Amino acid sequence: MDKEKNTRLPLVDLIEVKPMQDGYRWVAITAMLFAIGIILHTVSPNVGGVTPNWTIAMYSIVINLTNPTLSQAVGIGFIAGITLVPSSKSAFPLGNIASELSGAITCCILVKAMLRCGLGKWKLRPLVTGFLATMASGGVFTFILKIVLDLPLHVWLYAMLPVVAIVGALNGMITFLLFGPVRKLFFVQEDDE
Question: Are 26 and 65 in contact (CB under 8 A)?
Fold first, then answer.
């Protein structure tokens, strides 16, 4: 009888936590934009060695909209890198993991710095962050390729990095042009008709 009393768990009142209406909207928007980015990344043709990296543009939009914590940005970058591995057209697809981590972290740090400096409503913020996130991601990715393929430094500097800059400019424009429409979608209220 004594043993039976000791093995019973005490009764605890359950606490109900009501979710906020938009508490996880950023997760849904992020997933939707990743899906769009992956599809466009897969079907976009390579024109003269240049293809926009739609995934970077999409997570740059999300990071600009949500101002995530650094650990959330790491999660965004990791998911982006993992999802790009199967559709990668490169010689070393696993390099996408490191490159997208660096791109998302760069974008997150830039957004936080701009918000802290009072540039939260600056219209060119998505363009600048999209461009620089692509430069960070592309710089890391091409450097990994340089090491894996044992390419000379001048090939990386004068052939690969200029292509990264062109893709960065494209991604900056894509991020800038899509930011407004996605922002409207992100902040739409459910009761609006």
Answer: yes
Delineate the domains of the chain, giving CATH numbers in brackets: 22-41+51-186 (1.10.1760)
In sign, the C-alpha dihedral spanning 26, 27, 32, 36 is positive
**pTM of the predicted model as reported, rounded to 2 decimal places:** 0.81
Find the Cα–Cα–Cα–Cα dihedral 114, 119, 121, 123, rounded to 10°.
Answer: -90
Three-state DSSP class for 23?
A: coil
Of the candidates 137, 145, 62, 66, the one whose C-alpha atom is nearest the C-alpha of residue 106 is 137
Three-state SS at 50 = strand
Digit-by-digit pLDDT tens for the chain (193 residues) are: 555 555 665 665 655 544 444 567 777 877 888 888 888 877 887 777 788 889 999 999 999 998 999 999 999 999 999 988 887 777 788 999 999 999 999 999 999 999 999 888 889 999 999 999 999 999 999 999 999 999 999 999 999 999 999 999 999 999 999 999 988 887 765 444 4
Quote the DSSP letter at residue 13: -
Residue 141 structure tokens: 């990715």
